[in-house]
Amino acid sequence: MTSFDSAKLVKGKGIAEAVSFGSRRQVTIIEKGVWESVMKSLNSDLPPFTRRANLMVKGIELKETRGQILMIGRCRIQIEGETKPCASMDEKLSGLREALKPNWNGGVFGSVLDDGEISIGDDVFWDN
C-alpha cells in the first residue's frame, strides 16, 4: 500500500483510485491509538498500512459506532459496521488477527456521503 497526504472522496463510491472504489466497503478506517496498542501487545512495530485500511484517525473512538456519521474535514462518512480482520493478518505477524478481533480493534467501514478532498491534519469528529 502507498501512503498519501490527501485523498479525493466520491459520494457513494469511496476513495478515488482505491482498490475498494465502488465496493460495499467504500472506506475502511482504523484508530491510531488502537494500532499502536496492538503493536505494543505483540512486541512489534509494523507500519499501519499492514492493516490495509484506507484511513487512520486519532482522538476518536470507532468502537460500536454503526450508523453514526464521521466528519473528516468537510466530508461525511456513514459508519456501516466493524471491519473484521482476515487470515492474511497472521501472514504479516503471528497473532495479529486475534489481537484485532476484540472491541472493533480492526476498525470500521463506511459509505462516503459527500464529494470532497480530505487531508492529513483535517479535523475528525462525530456529526450529531
Show the helix and strand layout.
Elements: E1 6-10, E2 14-15, E3 27-31, H1 32-41, E4 55-57, E5 69-72, E6 75-82, H2 88-92, H3 96-100, E7 108-112, E8 116-119, E9 124-127
Parallel strand pairs: 3-4
Antiparallel strand pairs: 1-2, 1-8, 3-7, 5-6, 5-9, 6-7
Task: Tell me what the structure shows.
Helix content is 16%, strand content 31%. With 128 residues, it is of the alpha+beta class. It has a single domain, classed as M1 Pyruvate Kinase, Domain 3.
Helix and strand content put the structural class at alpha+beta
> What count of domains describes the coordinates?
1
Q: How would you classify the quaternary structure?
A: single chain
Task: Just give the CATH class.
Answer: Mainly Beta
Number of helices: 3
Ranges where pLDDT stays below 50 over 5 or more residues in a row are none
What is the CATH topology assignment?
M1 Pyruvate Kinase, Domain 3
Calculate the mean pLDDT score and round it: 94
Helix content: 10-25%
Q: Tell me the number of strands.
A: 9
With strands numbered from the N-terminus, the spatial order across the biggest sheet is 4-3-7-6-5-9
- The name of the CATH architecture is Beta Barrel
Radius of gyration: 14 Å
Short description:
With 128 residues, the protein is α+β, with helices and mostly antiparallel strands. The protein has a single domain (6-127), classed as PK beta-barrel domain-like (M1 Pyruvate Kinase, Domain 3, Beta Barrel), CATH 2.40.33.
